[in-house]
Amino acid sequence: MTMLHARLFHVLLYVALLASSSGIYAAEVAALDAQVSSTLQCEKLTEEDFKNSGTAPLSVVSAKLVPANDGTSEYCAVNGYIQPQIQFEVRLPSHNWNGRYFQTGCGGFCGIVGINNCSDALAANYVVAAHNMGHVGLPVKDPVWGNDPALREDFGGRSTHLMAVAGKSIAERYYGKRPARSYFRGCSTGGREGLSEAQRYPDDFDGIIAGDPAFPGRLGAIANNWDARQLLRDDGSEVFTPAKLAILHAAVIRTCDKLDGLADGILMDPRACNFDPAKVQCKTIDKDDCLTAEQVAAAKALYSGPVNSRGEKLMPGATPYGSEPSWSGAGRRSLAEGYLRYLAFPSNPPADYNYRSFNFDTDVEKTEQMARLYDPVAPHEAPDLRAFEQRGGKLIVYHGWADAGVSPMALLDYYAHVTSRQGGGEKVRNWFRVFMVPGMFHCRGGNAPNTFELLPDLVKWVEQGQAPDRVVATQNGPTGVIRTRPLFPHPAFARYTGKGDVNDAANWMSASPKKAVDDRIDWVRAPK
Question: pTM of this prediction?
Answer without folding.
Answer: 0.94
